[in-house]
Design brief:
Length: 295
C-alpha cells in the first residue's frame, strides 16, 4: 500500500497556518511512497567491486526488492556495469571515496547499471537530489536555456529555474568554475546535484560527477583555456548584452559567453568591452575547437 506521508505533511502545514517553504519540500528522507524499481536512482550503500552490493533508493522512497519485499534498501548479488565503464570508471564509481549513485533495473538478483555518478568526497548533504537539465539545442544566449530541476525518483513535474548557484557547492571545482555545470546540464544524463530552489534559483549543495555513460567533452573548460591564451584575464557572462554593459574604466573587460548550442557543437563568443572579437565552436564528441568568425 502506498504511504501518504508527504500529502499528510502538506495538509498539516497548511491547516496549521504555515507556509510551505523550499526547505519543507527539499529536505531528505521525506518520501516513503513506493515507486517502480526500473530506472530508479539508487545510492551505493555498500559494494565489493562488482560483487554483492547494498542499494538504497534516493530521496527516501521504497521499491519492490529482488527478494519480493518493499523497502528503501535492497541487497543485490552483483552489479552489471555498461561496456564503456572502463577501469578508471570502475575505480571512481566503486571506490566509495565519494557517494555513488546509479540508475538501472533489477535482473533477478543482479542490478543492471545504466548510469553511474559519484561525488568528489563523502557526504550526501542535507537536501534532496535533483536532475538539472536543459535542451541540447540553444539558438542564442543565454545558453543553456529553459533549465528545469526534476527531483529524482518522483513523478512530480519539473520546476523551471532561471539560474544555478554553485557558490555553496561542496565541490571546489564548481565553486571556482561554475560554468562546468553548463555542459552537464545539456548532456543526456543531466547534472545531478543536491540542493534547494530559492527565488527561482537552484542553490547547489553537492555535485555528482558522471562516470557512465561516458561524459562528452568539457567544452566550457576547453573554451576558457582557448580564451586565456596569452595570459588574458577572462570574465564569464551569461549573455553578450550583460558582458558589453560591464565596462571597466581602468582596464579592458575581456569576456566569454556561451552563445549557441546544437547536439554536436557549442558556440562561444569572445569579446572586449562593447565589441565581440571572435566566435568559435567546440565539438562535444571530439573536443575539436574551430574558429568560425573574427571581428
Amino acid at each position: 500500500m502506498r504511504s501518504h506521508r508527504p500529502i499528510a505533511l502538506l495538509f498539516t502545514l497548511l491547516t496549521a497556518g504555515c507556509a510551505v517553504t523550499a526547505d519543507d519540500l527539499d529536505a531528505t528522507g521525506e518520501g516513503a511512497d513506493e515507486i517502480a524499481s526500473a530506472d530508479a536512482w539508487y545510492h551505493l550503500d555498500r559494494v565489493n567491486g562488482t560483487g554483492p552490493a547494498t542499494l538504497s533508493v534516493v530521496n527516501g522512497y521504497t521499491v519492490r526488492c529482488p527478494d519480493g519485499r518493499t523497502r528503501n534498501t535492497c541487497e543485490v548479488s552483483a552489479l552489471v556495469l555498461p561496456a564503456d565503464c572502463d577501469w578508471e570508471c570502475r575505480d571512481g564509481l566503486l571506490s566509495q571515496r565519494g557517494e555513488g549513485l546509479v540508475r538501472g533495473r533489477f535482473d533477478g538478483t543482479r542490478f543492471v547499471v545504466n548510469a553511474g555518478l559519484d561525488t568528489w568526497q563523502r557526504g550526501m548533504g542535507t537536501f534532496s537530489v535533483y536532475r538539472l537539465s536543459a535542451p541540447s539545442t540553444c539558438a542564442s544566449d543565454p545558453c543553456p536555456a529553459s533549465i528545469s530541476a526534476q527531483k529524482l525518483n518522483t513523478a512530480r513535474a519539473p520546476t523551471a529555474v532561471t539560474a544555478v548557484d554553485f557558490s555553496r557547492a561542496d565541490d571546489t571545482n564548481y565553486r571556482l568554475e561554475p560554468w562546468r555545470g553548463d555542459d552537464a546540464i545539456t548532456s543526456a544524463t543531466g547534472l545531478l546535484a543536491s540542493g534547494r530552489i530559492v527565488d527561482h534559483t537552484f542553490r547547489v549543495d553537492r555535485v555528482w560527477r558522471a562516470w557512465t555513460p561516458r561524459p562528452t567533452c568539457m567544452t566550457a573548460s576547453l573554451a576558457m583555456d582557448h580564451a586565456t591564451q596569452g595570459g588574458l584575464t577572462i570574465r564569464r557572462y551569461r549573455t553578450m548584452a550583460e558582458a558589453m554593459r560591464d565596462v571597466t574604466p581602468d582596464e579592458p573587460n575581456h569576456w566569454l559567453v556561451r552563445t549557441a548550442e546544437t547536439p554536436e557543437l557549442v558556440t562561444y563568443t569572445l569579446g572586449v568591452n562593447d565589441l565581440w572579437a571572435e566566435r568559435f565552436t567546440v565539438s562535444k564528441r571530439t573536443c575539436a575547437l574551430t574558429v568560425i568568425a573574427e571581428h
